[in-house]
Structures are given as structure tokens and as C-alpha cells.
């Protein structure tokens, strides 16, 4: 019997970013609709442009806010029997296990503390600019690859800067349970039953692949 897909592991960078964006966007939309309604009651048909513009902005803000709220659940990593699937709101990427050379783990702050200032907004989100934010101390799973399945420039267009710690072929995944993800990837690759998450990191897919 063919093995089914594994668990979905939310990508925390997207989850935090969108959790910060959807409430103010939705609030702005609602406020603009209220302004448009008050202008309509006061001016009505005499000056339609006074309420049509804020109404349009309000509808757009509500629409975008709802999209951001829904997109929080559309960014995840999921192991399959033959590949690891990375999904974001605008990208679906399958990475064959044959492409993986090894994996490693590290704290986010140690991976990205030397990132260029051009991504300062992302640094603020992650708390890497000397702020106390939980994601900064979380452990990420770094999947090193023989090569990317699609050109890196395409990946950089659709993925956040925090998938790339340097210029080598790899992806950095920040999830709630990196050990369980590594364990499930290994079980999918070998066809074995998943082991408890208390097993040592040295037993993960990275070590077994690197030994071959």
C-alpha cells in the first residue's frame, strides 16, 4: 500500500508576518467603510466621489485582510514518500529526497545576524535587531541540497529571505517541531514507521543521507 502524505508543518516566518498584517489591514478597511457610510448619509448623491473613494479603499482593505488571514494556513512543509513539499501562498515546490545531501539545525539569530540591512523589516519581524521575539531563539532545520529543483532567482522571488542563509543550495525551514519533521522525512524516505520525537538529532535524515 502506498504511504500517505505526512503532517503539515506551518512555516512560522509566514505565520508571524501575516498575523501582524491582517488585523491592521482589516481594521483600516472597516474604518474606511464607516467613513464612506457617514459621507454617504451626509452628502448622498450630491458629491458621490466623497464616499465612493473611501468605500472602494474600505472594500479593498477588508478583502486583503481576509486574504492575509487565510494565507496564514497556506504556508507549510509536508513530507511525502518521494519528496518534501514546500507550500506558500504563491509557490508549491517539491524537493526529491535524492537532492538532499544532509540537514543541520541552528538558531535563527545565529543564521541571520549578518544579513544585509536591506532586509531590516524582516529582521524586525524576527526580533534579530536586538529585540526579544520568540522566533529569534527558535531552532531552524537547514536542508542542504545538491541543487535547486528550479532556479534560485525564482525561489528568491516567491520565498522570504529567511529561507536562504547563504549562497549555497539549501533551504532553511523554521517550524514548531524540526525534530518531528526530520523524523518524518526519514520514515518517508526509508518506508519505516516514524520513531518518537525524543530520538537524537544524529538519527535524523541528515546524518543517514550524509553517510551514504
Textual characterization of the structure:
By secondary structure, this protein is an alpha+beta fold. It has 2 domains: 14-71; 76-210, no CATH class. It is 44% helix and 17% strand. It has 7 helices and 7 strands. Strands 1-2-3-4 form a 4-stranded antiparallel sheet. Strands 5-6-7 form a 3-stranded antiparallel sheet. Helix 1 packs antiparallel against helix 2 (49-71). The longest helix is centred in the first third of the chain and has 32 residues, at 12-43. The protein is elongated. Residues 114-118 and 198-212 have low confidence and may be disordered.
Note the topology:
Elements: E1 9-10, H1 12-43, H2 49-71, E2 76-79, E3 83-88, E4 91-96, E5 100-107, H3 108-112, H4 120-126, E6 139-145, H5 152-158, E7 170-173, H6 178-190, H7 205-210
Antiparallel strand pairs: 1-2, 2-3, 3-4, 5-6, 6-7
Amino acid at each position: 500500500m502506498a504511504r500517505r502524505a505526512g503532517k503539515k508543518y506551518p512555516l512560522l516566518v509566514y505565520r508571524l508576518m501575516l498575523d501582524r498584517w491582517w488585523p491592521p489591514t482589516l481594521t483600516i478597511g472597516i474604518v474606511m467603510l464607516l467613513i464612506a457610510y457617514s459621507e454617504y448619509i451626509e452628502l448622498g448623491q450630491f458629491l458621490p466621489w466623497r464616499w465612493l473613494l473611501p468605500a472602494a479603499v474600505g472594500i479593498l482593505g477588508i478583502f486583503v485582510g481576509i486574504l492575509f488571514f487565510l494565507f496564514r494556513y497556506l504556508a507549510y512543509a509536508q513530507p511525502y514518500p518521494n519528496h518534501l513539499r514546500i507550500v506558500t501562498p504563491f509557490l508549491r515546490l517539491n524537493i526529491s529526497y535524492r537532492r538532499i545531501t544532509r540537514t543541520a539545525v541552528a538558531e535563527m539569530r545565529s543564521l541571520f545576524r549578518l544579513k544585509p540591512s536591506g532586509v531590516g523589516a524582516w529582521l524586525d519581524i524576527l526580533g534579530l535587531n536586538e529585540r526579544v521575539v520568540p522566533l529569534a531563539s527558535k531552532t531552524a532545520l537547514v536542508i542542504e541540497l545538491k541543487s535547486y529543483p528550479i532556479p534560485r532567482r525564482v525561489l528568491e522571488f516567491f520565498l522570504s529571505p529567511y529561507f536562504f542563509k547563504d549562497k549555497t543550495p539549501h533551504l532553511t525551514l523554521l517550524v514548531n517541531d524540526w525534530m518531528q519533521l526530520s523524523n518524518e522525512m526519514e520514515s518517508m524516505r526509508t518506508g519505516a514507521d516514524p520513531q518518537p520525537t525524543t530520538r537524537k538529532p544524529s538519527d535524523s535524515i541528515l546524518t543517514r543521507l550524509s553517510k551514504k
